[in-house]
Amino acid sequence: MNIVIVGAGKIGSALARYLVEEGHSITVVERNPERVSRISTSLDVMTVCASADIDSLKLAGAEEANLLIAATDSDESNILCCLVARKLGAKNTVARVRQEDHFREVLFLEKELGLSLVINPELACANEISRVLRFPSATQVDTFAGDRAELVEFKLKADNPLCGTTITDYHGAFGEGTLVAAIVRDGEAFIPTSKFVFRAEDDVLVVGSPRRISRLFKKLAIFKESVRDVIIVGGGRIGLYLTRELVSAGIEVTLIESNRRICEEIKDMLPQLEVICDDGTQPSVLEDAGIESTDAFVALTGVDEINTILCSYAQSVGVDKVIAKVSEAHFVDMAPSFDLDKPIQPQNIIAEQVLQHVRGMENSAYDSGVELLRRAMDDKLEVLEFVAKKGSPCLERPLNDLELRESTLIAAIIRKGNCIIPNGMSTIHAGDRVIAVTTRPGMTCLEDILRS
């Protein structure tokens, strides 16, 4: 597909990287010469160093584009850019919209504006953090099929009863109604066989219904109730979105923000919230906020280094669950050295949404295209949800008889609202939602689970 990306900041650059990996032809429009130089030397993309006016969009090929993604820092520019691109002939447009009032209005007018998708990185990031805080035993939590199935990632500690056992032992003693979908060991992701032996420091990905996952975690003695109180440092857009979501869920939140104007605005919006207008990097401020007794700590400042150090400090004083927002990939790679869980990266969350949309566009002729796409285990594998439709060669045949593509697993089948963990004799019926896990990305429809 021919795709034009307007804006080469963190979001635009991440989208370009992911879409190039998918084999698409990418042209990036960016007015900052340094950003243009950086992205042109690191990725196989065409670049146009200019503002996103009509002439530069024409030069970038918007008239022939299958998709244009407007990802600048300005909501207004992104919306206008998409309108111009549609007028020029772009078949589909995606707009990044950050401000809450704009986002709600643009969603309301999405079809009238000719937009295919509206993305809000800060809101998506807040939703991701909220899910993890509600299941603090995990490092990543994703839901599928209308919350009928959960995909949960966790790290095995040395005292976990799974250590030294096999996958067969797991199903016999612990994992009824769940499935170990993947393992990451020594940086390598793979789908384990029945003889696989768990060991400490393995990253484990399990799939099952929410009830079954909770039961599994209780059997492993790693279940933790949803957090009751949280300290958040950073009152930007993510902090505001997250605070509002947690407060509505009945979780007590203390927000620390040094900018008095932002503090007053947040207090006006959420009068029941405890807002501390002070420097959240000061240990004395954190102590006054009750860091030693809080259930969770979230660092959302605009500086990766500060977020990482704050979370490391919070762990050192006994906070059980810490989450850092990190934008730069090299800081994500450093997180394990601080003994921190995987940081939250807004650009990767948005990239998932766009990839899901693009793959759906590629197979619009198929009834069984991608419904939902999630990347897990530091992007080492993909988890996809498909809806099985009549006529698919995958239907009514035992899974043992299907020649699945290499490193691909059918992890769950959702039928009439029930999450089924399949075995070799299970079959897929028309109308089922199928959850597939693969370490070989690129699937765009249910039929792609089959060996070509």
Mind explaining what this structure looks like?
This protein is of the alpha/beta class. It has four domains: 2-119, NAD(P)-binding Rossmann-like Domain (Rossmann fold, 3-Layer(aba) Sandwich); 126-219, Alpha-Beta Plaits (2-Layer Sandwich), CATH 3.30.70.1450; 229-319, 3-Layer(aba) Sandwich (Rossmann fold), CATH 3.40.50.720; 348-449, Regulator of K+ conductance, C-terminal domain (Alpha-Beta Plaits). Helix content is 33%, strand content 24%. It starts with a strand and ends in a 14-residue tail after the last strand. The mean pLDDT is 91.
What is the CATH-assigned architecture of the largest domain?
A: 3-Layer(aba) Sandwich
CATH class of the largest domain: Alpha Beta
Total count of helical runs of at least 4 residues: 14
User: N-to-C terminal Cα separation, in Å?
Assistant: 22 Å
Shape: globular
- Portion in strands: 15-25%
- Percent of residues in helical segments? 25-40%
Strand order of the largest sheet: 3-2-1-4-5-6
Tally of structural domains: 4
CATH topology category name of the largest domain: Rossmann fold
Q: In this structure, how is the largest beta sheet organized?
A: 6 strands, parallel
Indicate the radius of gyration in whole angstroms. Answer: 23 Å
